[in-house]
Amino acid sequence: MRSEDVARLLPTGVRNAILAVLLLIVLGPLAYMAIASVSSDLAVARGALWPDGFHIDNYARIWSTTNLGRGLVNSLLVAGAVAVVSAFVALLSAYVLVRYAFRGRIAVLRSLLALQSIPGTLLLLPVFVLFAGAATALGVTIIGTRWAVLVTYLTFALPFSTWVMVTYLRELPPELDEAARVDGASPWRVLTRVIAPLSWPGLVVSGVFAFLLGWNDVLFASVLTNPDTRTAAVELQIFGASQEGGALPVYGQLMAAALVCAVPVVALYLVFQRYLVAGLTTGGVR
Known about the structure:
It is a multi-pass membrane protein. Keywords: Cell membrane, Membrane, Transmembrane, Transmembrane helix, Transport. It is a single chain. The protein has 286 residues and is mainly alpha-helical. It has helices at residues 3-7, 12-37, 41-45, 57-65, 68-99, 105-115, 120-138, 146-169, 175-182, 187-198, 200-216, 219-224, 232-241, 251-271, 273-281. The chain has a single domain, classed as MetI-like (MetI-like fold).
């Protein structure tokens, strides 16, 4: 069915009205956050929809009110490492699962889907006990370091990232591998010189998913980090919780901090938008 045929399913007026409502639902809260971030705390507290004055200094005060700068650095380090490692390991795993036939391959593929059904809250206590026991046995500090949350996020990101890469690599014809092997390329060279360059959309999708997992998590990061290794999401959660019960919460600074935390994610989407669309449709980049 052509796009023109799809467009005719709804009248133009109805289609535009639906799009307008969806845009309002999505952009409305973001617009209010932007307005509240430059409003006075009193104006936000009384529910004003437009600032009585533009208080740009809210964006300057958040750096001294909360440890947001250190949280952003920790989040970038942890989430960035999770994205890179997850995409790389997923590519290796998916290549083996797609190109080679071995006993247990179907079971591994099914387990990748089964692991997605396990809620993270169910694993919080076992992960904590496992890290505590490993720290005691090895005589090293694990809980409270970035390595603890990095390893934890990888356990959740790798199954999904691997499944994304399996789906994408299935679209690449095996003749590409055979042609490279005829020219004398080793399996590693085939993977790095032929498959990997053609898999950029899938790698971007898996990497962005892993990055968002590390960037947005509060549950594991609040338990496995200390004040020096807290991520931006935890710092923002602590900042918001500290406003409860106060004389006048600093709503303007809270909204400004939330928008600052959203900037890296928005920038990531804008930079990799083309690859994200191609990777999710497994149709390649045109």
